[in-house]
Amino acid sequence: ELEAMRSDGFSGDSVSDLAVAxxxxxxxxxxxxxxxxxxxxxxxxxxxxxxxxxxxxxxxxADSSPLFVSGGLMAVPFGRFETLMVSDPLTxxxxxxxxxxxxxxxxxxxxxxxGYLFNGDQDSGDDQIDDTGLYLGYAFENDDLAxxxxxxxxxxxxxSDGFSGxxDDEAGLGGVIGDDVSGFAxxxxxxxxxxxxxxxxxxxxxxxxxxxxxNGAGAEPSAWNLEIGYAFQLAAREAAVALGYQxxxxxxxxxxxxQRIALAFSLGLYENTSLALEWARDxxxxxxxGGTGEESNTLTAQLxxxx
Length: 307
Hints:
19 strands; 17-stranded antiparallel β-sheet; mainly beta
């Protein structure tokens, strides 16, 4: 993904950049009828190396059994983070959790569910495999309609990338928090013909004031995202437009805006080659809540190739 962007920040300073925003290389292997493996390498603009983003081994055969087990480095199934935009949704900024985990799951006739466990980096001082998560959902698809609705729960959302970075770098807690802080997420997607509607809500329980605060008390950060998209043909090429609205609550300490409205347009230039344009306007938290009360506009153009 090659991106060009121009943004005026909350401070009023204008910046522009041209960067390789992401490079992802994935290798999938079907070792036997019951065993598969995946390794995904990812480079992102803010990193200096090509990192291992996922490395999993899965034992299961959907034709013989609805049950499967998987283990390794993975984005645990907390939140879905679907988007029609170029930029990541605020729900992902808050809740994406990449962990080395062991998972047992179930998939049959559109129903999916599972649970997982891992040893998180943010805890009360113990070094045990005692963090857990659960998920449940239903997906349906035919020629005219596709849908996916689900919920998920994690015992300690402080281990998500968005929270752990702040707790280590800004709060300086070194991975030790008083108590685990659970998180809840719900998502929905409905696609009918050329129209796609999706939404997601994600929330954390209350942190201690000395960990993540808001207006003098412990914060309960949350975020939600709602998007609608329309696909059409433009000069015999696949095209789409999308409009999205996002909002956070009590997340000013994490550097997230309070509101975001975004408009995106994408066009398939050639097979597996697309061009996307996005305008996003962020509104910061008010001064009384610890923000600037200012607005920021960002224009992004992305050229992406998949092969």
